[in-house]
Design a protein that fits this description.
By secondary structure, the protein is an alpha+beta fold. It has one domain. 37% of the residues lie in helices and 40% in strands. It has two helices and four strands. A four-stranded antiparallel sheet has the order 1-2-4-3. The protein is elongated and about 55 Å long.
Amino acid sequence: MNLETVRVIGNVLETTWGKSSSADGTYSIKYVLDGSRLTLQYTMIVYFAGEQSLRPQVDTAYNQAIQLVDAKLGEVKSAYKAVAGTALKIKDAGGQDNLELIQPQGPRKIAYYRYNHVFQIED
């Protein structure tokens, strides 16, 4: 992967300096660029009252994560094409999600929902 590709991807995905992933602060999408592997890391906080409400909320969070990661990838591809003049070739390497309870006691439970999706950037 050439330096121009890295620069364009970094500019589109960088959220450290004064930009947030969501205007209302409900989720975050960060990235890791390791060689030619791009990982988009989606995180949101999930609140649930009991075990029965957890599965539907996780399913909703998963669907939202897929949509937002796909939208972010679309932004990257559009920006890359506008700057480089050629299409960015990306191969889907799959995704994985998890739930981490951060407040398991009490009537309202709080957890981090995370979804990481890996893409292989092809030259």
